[in-house]
Amino acid sequence: MRDSMLPNGIRVLRLSAEDALKVAESLWYRHTDDTVIAVAQDWQSKDVLMVANMNREAVIKTLTTGMVHYWSLSRKKLWLKGETSGHYQYLIDFRIDCDGDALLLRVYQVGNACHLGTRSCFDARYVNKVRLDTGISEGEP
Amino acid sequence: MRDSMLPNGIRVLRLSAEDALKVAESLWYRHTDDTVIAVAQDWQSKDVLMVANMNREAVIKTLTTGMVHYWSLSRKKLWLKGETSGHYQYLIDFRIDCDGDALLLRVYQVGNACHLGTRSCFDARYVNKVRLDTGISEGEP
Predict the structure, then answer these.
(1) What is the pLDDT of residue B133?
(2) In angstroms, rounded to a whole number, what is the distance separating the alpha carbons of residues B93 and B12?
(3) Are B94 and A122 in contact (CB < 8 Å)?
(4) B83 versus B4: which is more confidently predicted?
(5) Nearest C-alpha of chain B: how many angstroms from A55?
(6) Inter-residue contact B123 to B50 (CB < 8 Å)
(7) I need a surface site. Which of A1, A8, B85, B123 has the fewest CB within 10 A?
(8) In angstroms, rounded to a whole number, what is the distance separating the alpha carbons of residues A48 and A109?
(9) pLDDT reported for residue A5
(10) Is B38 part of the contact surface with chain A (CB cutoff 8 Å)?
């Protein structure tokens, strides 16, 4: 495991295979390709980093390894976040919403979450009061 | 409008119909029922309150009224958040992710976001180190 990369005091959440299975079986895979929606949030800044899908296997892999895995809707395959970029997400906390079809993952993000090079996938395109003068905005905040 | 409910200094984001349409047309409605995923985050505490779906109409309604609307996957209808509970979500900031299939909404939440009576839909079920002693946990944090 790559725990040595984490600063002291930050503990990665990992479950036994048995416990991970219990959690995985409690979810409602109602979204595309039998998935739940997963929201990754920086455990410290509380910034929302990205949104992706997880199938049952991705949930189990995430919980047993402590490293976040997703299901890619585009590539139709399981995907270890950071497998090509090195920008892994270590799992700190795992929350399930009231109807079981969405997860909130507090993560320790290595580097940037977004493949476009920003910390969050939500950093580049936004609409708010500050930018209304110039209409709809795209660009760095 | 219900702006008078908001504390001084908090401005609700609203767009013209024309600008809202531009934003709506820039999204990728790849999820169930031709929707995008919307994450509602408390504008102040940065807590993630809920995750739901929005179709094109929900996006336009949200942006033109400044009050968050969703598409209910279960009821197959447009839904003004708070229409029965009074727990409206006022739009403060609207962000779009890098592939356009997910939104991050910073909101001013009136009352509780969750119909089960908790502030967030993610408050009741979670797994973390603190609770691992007793296995998988459900209950109040």
Answers:
(1) 37
(2) 8
(3) no
(4) B83
(5) 15
(6) no
(7) A8
(8) 11
(9) 57
(10) no
